[in-house]
UniProtKB/TrEMBL annotation:
The keyword Lipoprotein is assigned to this record: no
UniProt GO molecular function: DNA-binding transcription factor activity; transcription cis-regulatory region binding
Alphabetized CDD domains for the sequence: HTH_LacI, PBP1_AglR-like
The entry's keywords: DNA-binding, Transcription, Transcription regulation
Pfam annotation, one family: Peripla_BP_3
InterPro entries linked to this entry: HTH_LacI, LacI/GalR-like_sensor, Lambda_DNA-bd_dom_sf, Peripla_BP_I
Name by which UniProt lists this protein: Transcriptional regulator
Domain (HTH lacI-type): residue spans on this chain: 3-57
Record field: transmembrane: none
Length: 343
């Protein structure tokens, strides 16, 4: 059985107030004392009384998230990986999640209720749309928030962390053009999401620089699942003039695309090239595909960890992070890309 606050403070020779302040990140507690307290907490299994902690600090020790749930919305392994990173950082500071499911049309009201409840210290917003009314709602609330992604309309005058989706698919398309490909396909995420539009924009920019275009019949927007990747790739391959290369917005979509390509009797990297965006999903490593995949890479788990660190530091006032961050992706060339086949 764990110790209580009084016993822990006596064990350390510190006042209960000092122990409490060390656990709650007050800056006046020096680093050495905070480390002593945290080590003792790990050793003894001490768990603070959250109700008492909330009364003492005015904080709930929680981050609020809204999960869109509705018929037709598939479960998302990408969001699960992001949450893993968020959780890794949150548990270090004894922060909890308040995960509130909501129908998409009720999300704005759900955020307002969460903020008014007093059960969360900050809010997190994901699945950014090209034009997103949730931003103005969050800006009107007296509670910190952070956005994963950016809208397309208007200035990004809010705190965010995003990756350079446009640059990622621009670089990927340029690689394919350098290899001689002129007819390419795009397996993308839902068309109403900002990251999908930015990735398509990057692809179109690279094509237009070389006087090339993207055939609308070779573009598919969908939830990023294996089945969607498989069915869409099948449709592309039976056209009179099929693509010689394809860009996929996730390795999950690529998994289905590879299955369709293999069933068509084509060889990846020779008959058709493929580049995927790699969110660094532990169960789906691009280097473990039968033909290792060329990818643009940025870790979703790392993004989750960073967002948790930024939110918690904002709540505890313990560190100074940049308000807006745009991460570049890595282009990693493997065997799935090769010269365009000769006609």
């Amino acid at each position: 059985m764990g110790v209580n606050l009084k016993q822990l403070s006596e064990m350390l020779g510190l006042s209960q107030t000092t122990v409490s302040r060390a656990l709650n990140g007050y800056p006046e507690v020096n680093a050495e004392t905070r480390q002593r307290v945290l080590k003792a907490v790990q050793t003894t299994g001490y768990r603070p009384n959250r109700a008492a902690q909330r009364l003492a600090t005015g904080r709930a020790g929680s981050i609020g998230l809204v999960m869109p749930i509705a018929a037709g919305i598939d479960s998302d392994v990408h969001f699960g990986e992001f949450l893993a990173g968020l959780a890794e950082e949150s548990v270090k500071h004894d922060f909890h999640f308040v995960l509130n499911p909501s129908a998409p049309e009720d999300e704005e009201a759900t955020f307002q209720r969460l903020a008014a409840s007093g059960n969360v210290d900050a809010l997190f917003l994901a699945y950014m749309r090209a034009s997103d009314p949730r931003i103005s709602i969050l800006k009107s609330l007296s509670i910190p928030f952070l956005v994963h992604g950016r809208t397309l309309d208007g200035p990004a005058d809010y705190p965010f962390l995003d990756i350079d989706n446009t640059g990622a698919f621009y670089d990927a398309t340029r690689l394919l053009i350098q290899l001689g490909h002129t007819r390419m396909a795009l397996l993308n995420g839902p068309d109403y999401l900002a990251f999908s539009q930015r990735r398509k924009k990057g692809m179109l920019r690279a094509l237009s620089e070389r006087g090339l275009s993207l055939d609308d019949r070779l573009v598919n927007h969908s939830f990023m699942t294996d089945e969607h990747g498989y069915r869409s790739m099948q449709r592309f391959l039976v056209q009179d003039n099929p693509p010689t290369a394809v860009l996929c917005s996730s390795t999950v979509l690529a998994l289905g695309a590879v299955r369709a390509i293999n069933r068509a009797g084509l060889q990846i990297g020779k008959d058709i090239s493929l580049i995927a965006h790699d969110d660094v999903l532990p169960m789906l490593k691009p280097e473990n595909f039968t033909v290792p995949l060329t990818t643009t890479r940025s870790s979703l788990r790392a993004a989750g960890t960073r967002i948790a660190a930024r939110l918690i530091s904002r709540i505890l006032k313990t560190a100074d992070y940049p308000d807006q961050e745009l991460w570049r992706t890595e282009l990693i060339v493997r065997a799935s890309t090769g010269p365009a086949p000769r006609v």
